[in-house]
Write a structure and sequence with these properties.
By secondary structure, this protein is of the alpha/beta class. The chain has 14 helices and 16 strands. The protein starts with a helix and ends in a 7-residue tail after the last strand.
Length: about 425
């Protein structure tokens, strides 16, 4: 493998050719075989959990040596509970309806034609991601379920644990009589493999980048393959004048502190001016008491413990126990701030006012908009998809959590009876 990895173009061409051949076969595989592959993979992951956790310890050591932040190390870490979550995700995807072949709509024409629009796989999907080894299982499972082959290029930090998870998926494929090449992991940390993937138009049908601003920017700049954009999770929470104090406190604390290293973590708090001295101060103090560094504007710096926000704190993905906070005059001020500094990922309003919530939902165009709910719910598993390959923030094809259904396109099946066009 070391010799193969030394010639990156040849290595990637071989992986691409095998993925394309596997995708052709998987496209018409029975639903039962795909479900069996995923269920078996779940069993194998659980059976090998000690081995996976041991491999993850090597990755954690590598990450510490590399200087990863605590939040990024949290993303990387696997313990038995998180391996259990991976197993649950695989089984959930296995139990879902197969999207391939589903009739989206159908109709008859006066010409005598019967037309159906049905779901069909995209083909070969390249997934480029950082740190989180669970993405290996999530992406592999969703691509398999949707009839797509996948080429996985995980971050260098998760090299060992991602490799074992990919092996478990391949074991499941073999047990179900499906080609193991449906799921392939790039077996090198060499970054040249990423750049090679971005131009593999003969083999890869779409690229899904999942990581920080640097990775996504590189992919968007250099890819010749179509890309499902997954930008930073610069998630805002706006406390409206009609916010319920208890809901505001509970939601904001969860949105910021549950897991700071995920893309659904709240990064900016906006507070309506009329509730700063009541609800706003209480929420800010609770954040500080929970260990969060609150970087506030001038109006909030009067609260003990708030530090002065800098210009670059607005529109910044901290992925840490830090949140930017600002007072706005009204809901339109909140909307203007989010349009200026947001990433079209996930934004939330806390309010009991239906009209305010309606305005927020109507006038923002983020992929996910929430009312009285934590932004940490921005996750395919929490949307009932079993898992997600990422959260797409663009507007083409897929948007929001990308599950199995979103990894399909469609084709038209047209039936006539000797029908000719006049």
């Amino acid at each position: 493998m070391k010799d193969a990895a030394s010639n990156i173009p040849a290595l990637m061409a071989d992986i691409g050719a095998r993925a394309k051949a596997a995708a052709t076969e998987l496209a018409f595989a029975p639903s039962e075989a795909k479900a069996m592959a995923l269920s078996t993979a779940a069993d194998v992951v659980w059976a090998r959990r000690a081995e996976i956790i041991a491999a993850n310890r090597k990755d954690m050591d590598f990450g510490r040596e590399k200087g990863l932040s605590p939040a990024m190390l949290d993303r990387l870490m696997l313990d038995e509970a998180r391996v259990g979550g991976i197993v649950d995700g695989l089984r959930a995807v296995a139990a879902q309806d197969d999207p391939v072949g589903q009739v989206i709509t159908e109709w008859d024409m006066d010409s005598g034609l019967h037309i159906q629009r049905v779901r069909t796989p995209l083909g070969v999907i390249g997934v480029i991601y950082e740190s989180r080894p669970n993405v290996t299982a999530d992406a592999g499972a969703l691509c398999l379920k949707s009839g797509n082959a996948v080429i996985l290029r995980g971050g260098s930090e998760s090299f060992h644990s991602s490799g074992l998870l990919a092996e478990c998926l391949q074991d499941g494929l073999r047990a179900a009589g499906l080609p193991a090449d449906v799921v392939q992991r790039v077996p090198t940390r060499d970054r040249a493999a990423v750049r090679e993937m971005l131009v593999m138009t003969d083999f890869i049908d779409v690229i899904v980048p999942r990581g920080g601003k640097g990775l996504v920017g590189l992919v968007q700049r250099e890819a010749r393959v179509p890309v499902f954009a997954h930008l930073e999770g610069i998630c805002h929470i706006y406390l409206d004048a009609a916010a319920d104090p208890e809901k505001a406190l509970r939601v904001v604390l969860n949105a910021k502190t549950r897991r700071t290293g995920i893309c659904g973590s709240a990064e900016c708090l906006l507070i309506h001016r009329d509730i700063v001295e009541t609800i706003g101060q209480g929420v800010v103090r609770a954040l500080i008491d929970a260990g969060v560094e609150v970087r506030g504007d001038r109006a909030l710096q009067e609260i003990p413990g708030v530090v002065a926000a800098k210009d670059d704190d607005w529109g910044r993905e901290f992925l840490d126990m830090i949140i930017a906070a600002r007072v706005v005059d009204d809901i339109d001020g909140a909307l203007a701030h989010i349009r200026t500094y947001g990433s079209n990922h996930t934004d939330a309003i806390i309010t009991e006012d239906d009209a305010a919530a309606g305005r927020f939902f109507q006038r923002l165009d983020s992929a996910i908009l929430m009312r009285n709910a934590s932004t940490q719910f921005a996750d395919g598993g929490e949307f009932g998809m079993g898992a997600e390959i990422g959260i797409a923030t663009g507007k083409m094809h897929a948007r929001g959590p990308v599950g199995a259904e979103q990894l399909t396109s469609f084709k038209y099946l047209v039936t006539g009876d000797g029908t000719i066009r006049s």
